[in-house]
Amino acid sequence: MAKNNTKKLRSGYSTGACSAAVAKAATLHLLGSNKGVQEVTIPFPDHSRHSFTIKTSLLDGGIAKATTIKDAGDDPDVTNGATIGAIVRFSTEPRDEKVTILGGPGVGKVTKPGLPISIGQPAINPVPRSMIKAAVEEGMQEQDAGQKNLEVTIFIENGEELAKKTLNKRLGILGGLSVLGTTGIVRPVSAKAWTATIDSSMKVAVAVGLDEIILSTGRTSEAAVAAKLELPEESLVMMGDYLEYALKAAAKHGFRKIHLAGMWAKIVKAALEIPQTHVRNGALEISNCVKLLRDLGLDNNLATELEQANTAREIYLRLKENGSYNLIRAVCARARDYAQKCSGLAVDVYLVTSEEGVVEYVDN
Fold first, then answer.
1. Binning pLDDT at 50, 70 and 90, where does residue 42 land?
2. What is the pLDDT of residue 76?
3. Disulfide engineering: 222 pairs with which of 34, 137, 216, 314, CB 3.0-4.6 Å?
4. Are strands 212-216 and 257-262 parallel, antiparallel or unpaired?
5. How far apart are CA 225 and CA 352, in angstroms?
6. CA 237 → CA 65, 124, 240, distances in Å?
7. What backbone phi and psi angles, to 5 degrees, belong to 158?
């Protein structure tokens, strides 16, 4: 019997969980752990507890600093391996809350409406804020801090550079990364992270008054259609492979129209009504693509030739060579029909190639 060599992907911790851990560690150091803190355990939203390896130090002026290295497990997270830190000091002015949370270097600031954090505030989402507060208050209790008020500043080393690899700028988060996480745990290739980004992008678009958006499967198709339509940056929603989710979310958020942008293989999958277009959910079967083309009028001789193709791209190039632009357009129209059926909205479809930009357009 053949062995199953599939490796189970390892989960890791969110930026929010790491922030809570360093905040508690710095609190413990500030309030009396003179030897420093090498490990700290904090509560998670599901009431479980997790431990983190920490480095702490005391700075001039009675300020404590703690850092940890983020381990995102096997998730391709840009913050994996980043240094997450907290600086904790006693509040120098009266405050209503015992714990005040601030954003330091590498943590972005919110500049657009539609996000769960107000404009002008550091991009530390509600659940991470709650985790940080709970962890710090736990540390204060362990050190019997009484009525003291603390100020906690979260920072991410090299966060501003790392943020350039994310969609933060588009969402109006400038100057650094977001501190995210709803459970504290990062699941590898997280669908939740993708869908949350889709929803956040749509909320920003709604908040600035837009009623139409560009849904794209990748940066190449997005850039080509954005240049063609000249819509505001807030209209851009990177849906990746989450086609059905994004279409339904667009309806839920109340948009009037969708501009759907994709390259050939993704457009074909939409035409075949495949709701999640990542290859891990099934490679695009050449036979299914050819059957679709037959249904749309492909003649038998060319169909027989195309059944020997190795990739969807090869099919596209062969159709072009044969002058079968009507079939390419028909595939786009079938993709449009699926998108309109799924969303209930008006949908225009744009077929994009990396060499030529927008090569086909089908409106509703």
1. very high
2. 64
3. 216
4. parallel
5. 8
6. 38, 21, 9
7. 65, 20
Q: Look up tokens 């977001």; give the residue.
A: 178
Provide the token pair at 259. 């501009």
Going from the C-alpha of 197 to that of each of 70, 143, 251, the distances in angstroms are 21, 39, 16
- DSSP string over 310-344: SSHHHHHHHHHHTT-HHHHHHHHHHHHHHHHHHHS
Would you state the structure tokens that stand for residue 109, as one six-digit string? 């600031």
Q: Which amino acid appears at position 171 of this protein?
A: L
Taking residues 125-139, report their average pLDDT.
95
103 backbone dihedrals φ, ψ, rounded to 5°? -105, 130
Alpha-carbon separation of residue 314 from 31, 59, 290, 308 (angstroms): 66, 62, 12, 10
What are the CA-CA distances from residue 107 to residues 83, 153, 155 (Å)?
12, 10, 6
Which residue in 295, 191, 181, 287 sits closest to 243, CA to CA?
191
pTM across the whole model: 0.70
Contacts of 75 (CB under 8 A, 6+ apart): 9, 11, 12, 186, 187, 188, 189, 190
Q: Residue 134 to residues 21, 90, 181, 327: CA-CA distances in angstroms?
A: 10, 17, 15, 59
Domains of the chain: 12-186 (3.30.2110.10), 191-362 (no CATH)
